[in-house]
């Protein structure tokens, strides 16, 4: 993450994550949703156009989650619309503010 506040706002207000932990560490952010925890490290010089970071998150009720993101005006990746993949996963992808690719998938 380049900006802790921007990352926190995106993940909490747009994706429904919550901050956890009892200490607010400088340059470090811990977020969770359901049984998922994501930890972020500050990297102020990160160039989003050169970022190849990606995470695959297994989800339940993916149709409802996808719709909630659309309702929240979260931009779906142009190549990541919700669809059933040949490997029997229903998936979609988004980019966070630092161009980390987040792919959400549910087994069929």
TrEMBL record:
Protein origin, superkingdom: Bacteria
Name by which UniProt lists this protein: Bleomycin resistance protein
UniProt keyword annotations, A-Z: Antibiotic resistance
Residues annotated as domain VOC: 1-107
Gene3D superfamilies named in the record: 2,3-Dihydroxybiphenyl 1,2-Dioxygenase, domain 1
Assigned protein family: Belongs to the bleomycin resistance protein family.
Lineage: Bacteria, Pseudomonadati, Bacteroidota, Flavobacteriia, Flavobacteriales
Pfam families the record matches: Glyoxalase_2 (PF12681)
Listed SUPFAM superfamilies: Glyoxalase/Bleomycin resistance protein/Dihydroxybiphenyl dioxygenase
InterPro entries, sorted: Bleomycin-R (IPR000335), Glyas_Bleomycin-R_OHBP_Dase (IPR029068), Glyoxalase-like_dom (IPR025870), VOC_core (IPR037523)
